[in-house]
Amino acid sequence: MKIVLTGLLLCLLSLATVKGQNNNNEPSFSQVFKATDKWLVLPVKNGAPKKNVELWIDGVEERWFDIELADGTPDWLAYIDISAWKDKEIELRVDKLSASSTAFHPIRQSNEDTNAGPLYGEKLRGQFHFSPKRGWTNDPNGLVYYNGEYHLFFQHNPYGVNWGNMTWGHAVSKDLVHWQEMGDVLHPDHSGPMFSGGAVVDSNNTSGLGAPGKPAMVLFYTAARAWGQFLAWSTDGRHFKKLGHAVVPRINKDNRDPKVIWHAPTQKWVMVLWVERDKGQHTIQFLTSPDLLHWTPTSIVKGGIGDDRYLFECPEFFELPVEGSSEKKWVLTAANSQYAVGTFDGTTFTPEAERLQGQHGRDYYAAQTISDEPKGRRIEIGWWRTHTNKADNSFNQSQSIPMELKLVRTPRGIRLSRTPVKELETLRAASYPVGARRLKEGDANPLAGIQAGLVEIRASIEPGKAKEVVLDIHGLPITYDVSKQELVIDGVRAPAPLTKGTLDLIIYADRIGVEVFTADGLLFMPVNVNIDSENKALGLSVKGGTAALKQMTVYELKGIW
Ligand code: FRU
After folding, report:
1. What atom in ligand 1 is closest to the CA of residue 335?
2. From residue 261, how far is each of 216, 379, 404, 422 by CA, in Å?
3. What is the distance in A from the centroid of ligand 1 to the CA of 137?
4. Do the beta carbons of residue 38 and residue 80 sit within 8 Å?
5. CA 213, 219, 220, 226 torsion: positive or negative?
6. For the segment 46-75, what is each residue's pLDDT rounded down to a tens digit?
7. What is the 3-state secondary structure (H, E, C) of 243-268?
């Protein structure tokens, strides 16, 4: 009976189909359907010509996006949540849809959110790195701890595996390790697509957006047509409302990526914003506010010009104690991780050391730190441009593992260090200690007995007189060039000076690459390279001399999904 009725309904609805002509003389498509299920299903063929899709409800255009619609068999299915309009009539308009396309013949709805493939088990899916179920991600946004959960918002294209349709996706975690994707929260509107920004908890309800005992989580973002800075808020961590007007109108040609912090000594909020000035001068604009709603520009810090991308996009600003002292310093950084260390009086940042290199890897970008972290730690997650745009993949790109930042005094001055957060240790499923030994060329592989897929490796090696020490992870060599004191991974070279003749390594290896830490975290080297997930072999060897393995433990890790 249900099938007959559904068939009848589909017939009636298809009567409402209008086949018109658009400006390009190509057929367009319009059909009205009743929202019955949670999701509208959109078939995607990666690389197919893009079509514009619009959803109109009660005469209002509620969603619009472009999508590589599959006219025939799809690579994957995108889902758009239509539950907010349950039982309403939705008009679906598609531009340039060919008459033979089966994309919306029939229009499919579903209450289940599944793909044909093994979701989260795909060959190129990072197993302990966050990536969206489907679609593209770039910058992490709005990292904040609120109501007992870590929130990770992220730049999301829900409808394609390339950049576009910028929307804020949302995931939550209780432990910084296991993430649950919650669905998109900020959709493009008439002010533009939703570009990057940060979040804070307005604990004292300075904005009045919260209620007694219910502080608001406030998200700041750039709407990339008005190019102003906007806000949205939530009092339950699940439902979000947009304020509807810019709290910081456009300052100059290009300005974006607001990050907000609370400055206790002046009892003010501080926003850092990337603003491009004349002749491609990158600057960070500082603003202050008593209430998150009204902002006053206070000062500017200059970065590079044009392709010199020091202080370009996605600024981040925070204070940290200098380890082992009572001193505190401020850090100003932006998308490429180059940073300055200095002082801040509530309105003006004065750099003392500038253009410090934040990381030495490949394609680690737009990192942000977590606001309101309950243990007071400064924890960073960055976008890792992984090589995951392959064939019929339904998702692309990844976030890094979470890392704790510290300021440490070194002979060259105060520097940032990064180490993997302690919580990641909960992923250890098995451990293989490897005894101390001398290593010389031609020796048997000391790791021959270990078979482990996802790994964390901690090792202390004295390279001694060897020319090279090579740790092989599933066919990916991690080479220490002893005379240059450099690490070499997949063509990327990074300085890794020995500490008292010793190289201390922490390595996390997932299917999408390796994140390497040495010298107590002063070197962070993420290298995005796909690793054969069938290969579970490891190797340790030296060339041209004798080295000493002081200690090593290989941990096999569990995945997070
Ligand atoms: C950095 C960036 C941001 C912008 C966002 C758009 O990767 O270009 O400046 O807000 O991506 O997705």
Report:
1. 1
2. 14, 14, 18, 25
3. 11
4. no
5. negative
6. 999 999 999 999 999 999 999 999 999 999
7. CCCCCECCCCCEEEEEEEEEEHHHCE
Residue type, 495: P
CB-ligand 1 contact for 504 (6 Å cutoff):
no
CA dihedral over 349, 353, 355, 358, signed as positive or negative: negative
Q: What is the arithmetic mean of pLDDT over 86-94?
A: 97
| Mean of pLDDT over the chain | 94
Q: Residue 516 has which token pair? A: 């390497």
CA quadruple 251, 257, 262, 265: dihedral, nearest 10:
-50
**357 three-class SS:** coil
Which amino acid belongs to residue 31?
Q
Residue 165 has which token pair? 């349709």
CA distance 322 to 24: 62
495: which 2 tokens? 């300085």
How far apart are the CA of 334 and the centre of ligand 1, in A?
11
Q: Which of 184, 255, 257 to mutate to test the pocket of ligand 1 (most atoms within 8 A of CB)?
A: 257
What residues contact residue 116 under an 8 Å CB cut-off, 6+ apart?
A: 76, 77
pLDDT at 126 > cutoff 80: yes
Expressed in angstroms and rounded, the spacing between residue 187 Cα and the centre of ligand 1 is 15
508-554 tens-digit pLDDT: 999 999 999 999 999 999 999 999 999 999 999 999 999 999 999 99
Residue 473, classed as helix, strand or coil, is strand
Taking the CA of residue 139 as reference, the ligand 1 atom at the shortest distance is: 7
* Atom number of ligand 1 nearest to Cα 274: 9
What DSSP line would sit under 114-145, residue for residue?
--SS-TTT-TT--SSS---SSEEEEEEEEEEE
For 15, the token pair is 């009567």
pLDDT at 35: 98
For 3, what's the count of Cα atoms within 13 Å in the CB-facing half-sphere?
A: 0
H or E element at residue 354 = strand 349-356
Separation of alpha carbons 138 and 140, rounded Å: 7
Three-class DSSP category at 308: coil
Q: In the predicted model, is pLDDT for residue 238 greater than 50? A: yes
Which amino acids are annotated catalytic?
139
* 521, two tokens: 């975290």
